C-alpha cells in the first residue's frame, strides 16, 4: 500500500508540474491511472501511443489486491488489457483527443477468499469488449471516459467483478458470458 501511495503522489506531482503546451503542439503518448481503481481492490496503470490522428494503441496493467477491497474477499492477482482505438472521422483535435470506438481484450486472473468455502478460490476470465468513449486533453492533463460490453469466458468469481469488467448481474438475472465495462482515466501527456 505504501508503494501505491508513492506512485500516486509521483503522478500527481507530474500532473501539477505540467507545462502548458504551445499552440499547435501535439503529444502522442500518455500515461494514465484509472480514476478510483484503488477503491475497487486494484490499481490500474495504462500507456497509450498515437499512430496518427485516427488510431492509438493502449496497454493496461493492474495489480489486484493493491487497493481497498469493497467485497472483503482479499483478492490477489493481476489484470492485463489491450485496446486499439479508432477515432471517428473528423478528429482534427490531435492523436489523443476525440470520440472513439475500440475493440479491447482483457485477461484477469486472481484468487480470493470464498464466501462459500474456507479456501482460496481461483477466478480466471478473458473478455472481448467493444467500447465507445471520449478522450480529451487540457495542456498535459488527459481525461478518458468510456462504456462498453462484450463476451466473457472462463472461471468467474462469486462476485462477478473481475477488476476490469463485471459480469452481467442486472434485473434479477446473472449471465457469466456477458461482460460490462466503464471507467474514467486521468493521465499525463508527453
Could you characterize what this model shows?
The protein is 8% helix and 57% strand. By secondary structure, the chain is mainly β. β5 (98-113) and β6 (120-138) form a beta hairpin. The radius of gyration is 17 Å and the shape is elongated.
Could you name the key traits of this structure?
elongated; 190 residues; mainly beta; eight-stranded antiparallel beta barrel
Structure at a glance:
By secondary structure, the protein is mainly beta. Helices cover 8% and strands 57% of the residues.
Q: Tell me the radius of gyration.
A: 17 Å
The ordered H/E elements are HEEEEEEEEE
Category from helices, strands and their pairing: mainly beta
Strand order of the largest sheet: 1-2-3-4-5-6-7-9
Mean pLDDT: 85
Strand content: over 45%
* Number of separate strands: 9
Tally of helical segments: 1
Largest sheet: 8 strands, antiparallel, barrel
User: Unreliable runs, pLDDT <50, ≥5 residues?
Assistant: 11-23
Distance between the termini: 27 Å
